[in-house]
Amino acid sequence: MIYNQFMLINPxxxxxxxxxxxxxxxxxxxxxxxPEAFWEKLAKELSWDKPWDKVLDWQYPYxxxxxxxxxxxxxxxxxxxxxxPAADKVAMIWVAQPTxxxxxxxxxxxxxxxxxxxxxxxxxxxxxxxxxxxxxxMIYMPRVPEQFIAMLASLKIGAVHSVVYSGFSxxxxxxxxxxxxxxxxxxxxxxxYGKKTVDSKANVxxxxxxxxxxxxxxxxxxxxxxxxxxTPRDMxxxxxxEKQSPECxxxxxxxxxxxxxxxxxxxxxxxxxVVHAHGGYMVGIYATLKLVFNIKPDxxxxxxxxxxxxxxxxxxxxxxxxxxxxxxxxxxxxxxxDIEIWWKLIDNYKITKFxxxxxAVRSLMKFGEEPLKxxxxxxxxxxxxxGEPINPEAWLWFYKxxxxxxCPIMDTWWQTETGMHMITPVPSVGLKPGSAFKPxxxxxxxxxxxxxxxxxxxxxxxxxxxxxxxxxLLDVYNNSKRYHxxxxxxxxxxxxxxxxxxxxxxxxxxxxxxxxxxxxxSGHRLGSAExxxxxxxxxxxxxxxxxxxxxxxxxxxIKAFIILKQGITGDDVLKDELKQLVRKEIGPIATPDAIDxxxxxxxxxxxxxxxxxxxxxxxGQPVGxxxxxxx
Length: 631
Ligand code: WTA
Prior knowledge:
This protein is of the alpha/beta class. The strands form 9 sheets. A 7-stranded mixed β-sheet has the order 5-4-17-16-18-19-20, with helices on both faces. It has a 5-stranded parallel β-sheet with strand order 7-6-8-11-12, sandwiched between helices. Helix 2 crosses helix 3 and helix 5 crosses helix 6. It folds into 2 domains: about 500 residues, Rossmann fold (3-Layer(aba) Sandwich), CATH 3.40.50.12780; about 100 residues, GMP Synthetase, Chain A, domain 3. The protein contains 18 helices and 30 strands. The site of 5'-O-[(S)-ethoxy(hydroxy)phosphoryl]adenosine has 24 residues, from helix 11, strand 24 and strand 25.
């Protein structure tokens, strides 16, 4: 069959037959008529220590869900399975990055029972170090089993974790540790990354140089060489857990108590600490995974994200476990030791649901479909996409060559702030390649102009959410003002997502991309202002402006416009120096692709750089309204 982006791809009848949701329209209508009843019904499928007095307390702009209830995410992710046959089911399969294509897989698996023991031991270890309810545990780790165990253990005792992506630099880590006033930090002594070894403990040491709050650093010996204990506050993970009991009661907390803080980029130079609660978050991620990926007990779910980002929190770890299935984790990247590693893993571990990012699909698509032909990929039932818009060409390639035209693609739109899928198909609906379909049940989304009025079909506008949802962020940590300003003041009475979108004549949503200064590089969320402040920390730089430029593989690439201080001339040596500086200040994921030295930057009369104008010029597009432009 020849496909194109304008067609409607109808679901396979087998998939429809197996689906929880057979009639999207009917269930959507019902859920919107009474969202609280919809969510309450799903919440009742989970375990609560004390039921709620009220499903939702909405005091604009703060939503509190399941008020009065007591629970813990871990009580649902682990404890509730221990008294069922799922206790002996594999909860987690972890495969290490091999050193070359010929190496036999190094695999670690945990049943729910075994995972409970590991989590309990580490939880007792944290307690022995004085970590209590509400204390912040910083986790700066690559994709290793201990990363997930540390997350679960923190929540189990009522502590709040904050995971920092391992690709962030020492400076970025320091900003986050300081803002969170964390008490304990968990890391590895390093990790393999392709052919290289990353010395991540050196970043930790640098980040903690003047730190006053971190009392203990727990180091996992991922390199298996006994290195990494460099200061008196350091101890090895193995030393801490060996003497601990494998039993630890789960601390029951208020449903509205914070579970974690996840820092994310926004419009200013400092990242925002997005705070999520136990109860609402847990219900939201449980329900979305279940209905969007049609989760069944025998599923082996593989989400290729990293727990340093929200996708890893919600859909590698918490939701698959809450749903009682097996979560699969591969330590490496899609192209090492070779470009077939993902397909090999799908066949070997019989992955049933595969959730990845457009950037990964595009980077593998470059090698054509030949490499895929060696693999059966017959265990796959449903595919998923997240993190940035998926272009129809990549969608169709994914559909044809990975899903063999039988697996629907769930293009899920959501954010760190939303915690859970917001605009997404379910497996039983007709799909349009490149569209994220329509809002999930209970979600009222729309596309509006700057005054909040709905725009006509196929017209670009601001993507907004009209009513609260269970996994909605509680607040911005230590900065409620920013919470109000970023999400609730641009357009009154609604949640402002920061994305632009269109809705077509059939009601399908098409996400265009960010309308603020967030840049998505290979799905990683970075802020223009963050990058600019890294540039201007160089003694030769006077001013900087950074934009995202469309990129065929990465989605967006980073371009910087730099004004140098008087008397300084720019050359390639300085460009390299600046690239290195940004890598050091933010991390390798933020390496600028292009730098232009300029004499002037477009500014408003009040002196604000108009990145929009720079971007339009760079892309040869109309510049739009320039009435506020100074010159
Ligand atoms: C973008 C990632 C188009 C969007 C879960 C959003 C998407 C930002 C999609 C949030 C999608 C995420 N289609 N764009 N399916 N999913 N985005 O916080 O711009 O890392 O605002 O959360 O990613 O990025 P974040």
